[in-house]
């Protein structure tokens, strides 16, 4: 059964040897790029285009045409390749359209070598774009999938190649277009197709014709030979001459032959922890978690897009029925409306089925990955903390909580942030921008905010080697004493929490001086010329109850630390309500924007970098009655005494 994809939706690929067919109705340039797991194209040698049409595992056409067939052999691509992107662009100077919005939407189909369609995608929604990434074939846990992309570029071929990470994309685009011009000069017009485009006919035909097309498969065609050492055997459905096999010639009309039974769908791959690229297990787990994050974002986007399409189709059909007086009343009108709603229900049910399949696979992967996470990535309830030992080197990243979407709230993805922190953190204890926070008492919300900050500080202390992470606290009014007690009692702070205006100025002054000294040493090219006794460890400043105890000078220093500190190892964690500092007006707006906002209660304020979903953030919580915090801090303190940190 053919999968009709919408933008962002993915589908498993049962075979490694495939054809990708493109039908645009006007000449387009087709190409392909090979990229690693991070989406980076190593260079021009990883691009198949009309001037260089063959790469290991992929072959494209050498000229612009209205119809293309790209041969793909996924088993033949290099092991470092994890993504294969299919690119389409409008040629220059051939008298055709200059933007995709001025012509029919391009149609792409992934087929087997026997011509059977696996997945199709009509690239709708294009307007001014003159280049588009149509499809992406990507490797996931040892299996390949296809994803409908539809990412268009108004800047044309050069902009698209630049987005693929290539150097000097304009020069490469000019080379490709020159090769296309040479190919057009040598080529003759292609003959008209011998049969109409089956997919477009099925999309525009009535329901009766659709059912007939399903019962009578399209005329089989001989596929283009993919790049391989030996040609593939002829497909079973293609008639073979008597001289080849010694049997009678089959004169039956291709549309009257009985279709071969559909092969069984391959079982989903068994999830394995660390099944991603990387030099170490921590790096592989980090990449795997981000892969799960991206998969959940995109498969949910595809589901939502499919539901929106079903709704818009239903509305359009109902509007059409209402606009025709003959179909407003009577049995025919009722039947048409019932058919429209049935089609809507069928589309949404199909989208839900695909979503459930993908989410079940991700849930199974989470169940395997979560127990294998190291302390830096693990939740506080993970048993790995019972065997915790202070590490001798800093990890790649740290977990700041969990993320989930409303389609399946129980499917949680760890929120991993690279170390050292590139942005400071803001634990928002305000009630204005969160429904969950508005339901809590103000005092309770402030207590939860400080508990969240302590949990983050404890994790950062736990994942750094002894003496390589220092925590300072500013608590001008002393209102966070209860929440800070575990850190104070364990002796893991740089000093007692600073209180009053004098304490605020002292801590800010010392950290500002450290930033200045390190910056001067780095600019002078003499990082070893720092004053003796200067603490070279990463620094974290926790500021509670801002702006209490802060004057204009202290606010200026705080903004300076937020802007300049991360580059030289000084990081900021604000535990504050923005409304409390409203008296400063827009002066502090850059400060809030520079920080990563997190909340002490679940809140859907974070967005992913791919499709921009509103993700619900879950703060890190200790299991009820657990002593993991005191246990971890005690071992951090003990290791510092042993190593003199």
Tell me roughly what share of residues is in helical segments: 25-40%
Percentage of residues in DSSP E strands: 15-25%
In the predicted model, the low-confidence regions spanning at least 5 consecutive residues are 185-247
Cα separation of the termini = 64 Å
Instruction: Specify the structural class.
Output: alpha+beta
Question: Radius of gyration in whole Å, from Cα?
Answer: 30 Å
The pLDDT mean sits at 84
Number of helices: 14
| Largest sheet composition | 12 strands, mixed
Tally of DSSP β-strands: 21
**What general form does the structure show?**
globular
Task: Identify the notable features of this structure and list them briefly.
12-stranded mixed beta sheet; alpha+beta; 5-stranded parallel beta sheet; 21 strands; 645 residues; 14 helices; 35% helix
Description of the structure:
There is one protein chain. Strand 9 (107-111) and strand 10 (117-122) form a beta hairpin. With 645 residues, the protein is α+β, with helices and mostly antiparallel strands. Strands 1, 2, 3, 4, 5, 6, 7, 8, 9, 10, 11 and 12 form a twelve-stranded mixed β-sheet that branches. The protein has a five-stranded parallel β-sheet with strand order 16-17-18-15-19, sandwiched between helices. The termini are far apart. Mean pLDDT is 84; it is low at 185-247. The chain has helices at 156-163, 169-186, 198-204, 207-215, 242-245, 281-323, 331-369, 435-438, 442-463, 481-490, 500-523, 552-564, 589-594, 628-643, and strands spanning 3-5, 10-12, 17-35, 47-48, 54-55, 58-59, 65-73, 83-89, 107-111, 117-122, 131-140, 143-153, 397-404, 413-418, 424-428, 469-474, 538-546, 570-576, 595-598, 603-607, 614-618. The protein contains 14 helices and 21 strands.
């Amino acid at each position: 059964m053919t999968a009709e994809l919408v933008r962002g939706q993915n589908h498993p690929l049962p075979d490694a040897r495939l054809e990708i067919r493109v039908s645009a109705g006007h000449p387009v340039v087709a190409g392909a790029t090979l990229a690693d797991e991070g989406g980076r194209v190593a260079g021009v040698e990883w691009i198949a285009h009309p001037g260089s049409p063959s790469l290991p595992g992929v072959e494209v056409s050498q000229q612009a045409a209205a119809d293309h067939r790209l041969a793909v052999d996924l088993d033949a691509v290099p092991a470092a390749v994890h993504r294969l992107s299919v690119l389409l662009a409008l040629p220059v100077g051939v008298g055709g359209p200059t933007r995709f919005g001025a012509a029919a939407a391009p149609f792409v189909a992934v087929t087997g070598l026997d011509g059977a369609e696996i997945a199709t995608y009509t690239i709708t929604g294009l307007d001014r774009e003159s280049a588009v990434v149509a499809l992406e074939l990507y490797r996931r846990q040892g299996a390949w999938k296809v994803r409908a992309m539809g990412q268009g570029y108004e800047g044309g071929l050069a902009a698209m190649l630049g987005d693929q990470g290539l150097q000097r994309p304009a020069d490469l685009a000019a080379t490709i277009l020159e090769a296309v011009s040479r190919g057009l000069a040598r080529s003759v017009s292609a003959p008209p197709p011998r049969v109409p485009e089956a997919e477009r006919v099925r999309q525009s035909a009535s329901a009766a014709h659709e059912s007939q097309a399903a019962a009578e498969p399209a005329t089989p065609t001989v596929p283009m030979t993919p790049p391989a050492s030996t040609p593939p055997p002829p497909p079973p459905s293609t008639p073979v001459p008597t001289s080849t096999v010694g049997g009678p010639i089959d004169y039956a009309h291709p549309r009257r032959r009985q279709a071969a039974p559909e092969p069984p769908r391959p079982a989903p791959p068994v999830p394995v922890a660390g099944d991603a690229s990387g030099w170490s297990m921590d790096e592989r787990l980090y990449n795997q978690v981000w892969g799960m994050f991206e998969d959940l974002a995109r498969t949910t986007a595809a589901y939502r897009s499919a539901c929106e399409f079903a709704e818009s189709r239903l509305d359009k059909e109902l509007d059409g029925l209402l606009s025709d007086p003959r179909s407003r009343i009577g049995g025919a009108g009722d039947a048409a409306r019932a058919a429209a709603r049935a089609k809507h229900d069928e589309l949404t049910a199909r989208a839900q089925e695909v979503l459930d399949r993908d989410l079940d696979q991700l849930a199974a992967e989470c169940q395997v990955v979560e127990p294998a996470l190291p302390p830096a990535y693990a939740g506080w309830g993970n048993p790995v903390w019972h065997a915790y030992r202070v590490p001798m080197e800093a990890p790649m990243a740290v977990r700041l909580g969990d993320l989930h979407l409303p389609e399946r709230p129980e499917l949680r993805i760890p929120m991993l942030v690279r170390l050292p922190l590139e942005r400071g953190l803001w634990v928002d204890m305000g009630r204005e921008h969160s429904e969950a926070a508005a339901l809590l008492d103000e005092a309770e919300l402030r207590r939860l905010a400080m508990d969240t900050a302590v949990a983050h500080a404890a994790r950062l202390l736990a994942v750094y080697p002894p003496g390589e992470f220092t925590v300072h606290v500013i608590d001008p009014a002393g209102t966070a004493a209860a929440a800070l007690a575990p850190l104070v009692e364990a002796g893991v702070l740089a000093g007692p929490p600073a209180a009053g205006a004098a304490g605020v100025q002292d801590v800010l002054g010392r950290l500002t001086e450290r930033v200045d000294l390190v910056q001067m040493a780095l600019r002078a090219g003499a990082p070893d010329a720092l004053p003796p006794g200067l603490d070279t460890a990463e620094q974290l400043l926790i500021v509670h109850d801002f702006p209490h105890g802060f004057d204009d000078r202290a606010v200026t220093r705080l903004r300076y630390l937020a802007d300049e500190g991360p580059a030289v190892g000084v990081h900021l964690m604000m535990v504050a309500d923005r409304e409390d500092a409203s008296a400063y007006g827009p002066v502090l707006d850059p400060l809030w924007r520079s920080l990563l906002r997190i909340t002490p209660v679940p809140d859907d304020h974070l967005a992913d970098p791919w499709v921009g979903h509103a993700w619900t953030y879950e703060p890190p919580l200790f299991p009820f009655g657990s002593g993991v915090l005191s246990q971890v801090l005690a071992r951090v303190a003990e290791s510092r005494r042993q190593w003199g940190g």
